[in-house]
Design a protein that fits this description.
Length: about 300
């Protein structure tokens, strides 16, 4: 079975913005598997300002993610940051410059609008009926946070050749181009983040850095697992609908993936001296798995997007 190279990123510094849970936590852990020092940022902290919390108001913390990075073989560092607040990201950049001098990998995995998108019965609400404040909040969380983060942190990535920026989204540019995604606001975020990978790649190429947009497949995040009453250890029980009081997972969940899968994809990119070949592209984790040969934690190479 495939296993990570524990020293592939030893001595490298990565920042995962939005590392509290979900894809961000999986990416931080995947970079940790390869030996990286990972700065895990997010709002919900067990030791920071308790008034600064995710819109989800869940129990996961950035400290838990940092501990997972360290257990995985890297060095995890938790820093509480609200990426909508430019001053906070400025302070993060100053700290990174003082303590590390350089950032090798920046991952924009900030989202935080899963609850705001609403349950399925509210989807397809037209823009003139959709709550405007909610819609604009979705855009701020999904797009403005990425722009603020790139503005302040990319100077630390481009001070030497070889830097990597990964924009995490949902759906490739090709898929989203002709698919309506839930609402005008949600749809716009998915298109925009892919475009950020393209446009920032255009700006980074002359300075020897790489940017791309990366989408996981059907992610078994903490929220998703709770929806079906399962854990990562028994997630297949959701396929059979055998968990009392919870719905059975719909068709396609059998090709879902753990958050670690996308983390291994980012680690493979970061360790590739020829990573510039991915510049400006919009790709899936499965695309990277086929190219680099890594697997999910169960040894499989799931590809949710193959169904589309």
């Amino acid at each position: 079975m495939w296993s990570p190279d524990r020293d592939a990123l030893r001595g490298k510094v990565a920042v995962v913005a939005g590392a509290t849970r979900g894809a961000g936590r999986g990416i931080a852990a995947g970079l940790g598997e390869a030996g990286a020092t990972v700065i895990c940022t997010g709002r919900t902290s067990s030791s920071g300002d308790p008034s600064v919390r995710s819109d989800y108001d869940r129990s996961e913390t950035i400290e838990e993610t940092a501990e997972l990075v360290t257990r995985s073989g890297g060095v995890g560092v938790a820093v509480q940051v609200d990426h909508l607040e430019s001053e906070q990201v400025t302070r993060l950049a100053e700290r990174l410059r003082t303590e590390y001098g350089h950032v090798d990998v920046l991952v924009n995995s900030i989202w935080g609008a899963e609850v705001l998108k609403g349950p399925p019965p509210t989807w397809n609400t037209p823009v003139w009926r959709h709550d405007l404040d909610t819609g604009l909040r979705i855009l701020r969380l999904a797009i403005e946070t990425h722009l603020v983060t790139s503005h302040h942190l990319l100077p630390l990535v481009i001070d030497r050749p070889g830097g990597l920026l990964v924009e995490i989204t949902d759906g490739t540019a090709a898929f989203n181009a002709d698919q309506y995604r839930i609402s005008v606001y949600y749809d716009l975020t998915k298109v925009a983040v892919n475009r950020l990978g393209f446009s920032q790649g255009h700006e980074l190429e002359p300075v020897g850095a790489t940017a791309l947009a990366l989408t996981p497949g059907w992610l078994r995040s903490e929220i998703m697992l709770e929806n079906f009453g399962v854990t990562e250890e028994n997630w297949r029980d959701a396929l059979e609908g055998s968990v009392a009081g919870y719905p059975a997972a719909p068709e396609g969940f059998e090709t879902s993936e753990s958050p670690r899968y996308v983390g291994r994809g980012v680690a493979a990119l970061a360790a590739d001296p020829d990573r510039a070949r991915w510049n400006q592209r919009s790709v899936t984790v499965a695309d990277l798995a086929r190219d680099y040969g890594f697997t999910d934690i169960d040894g499989t190479r799931p590809d949710s997007w193959a169904r589309h």
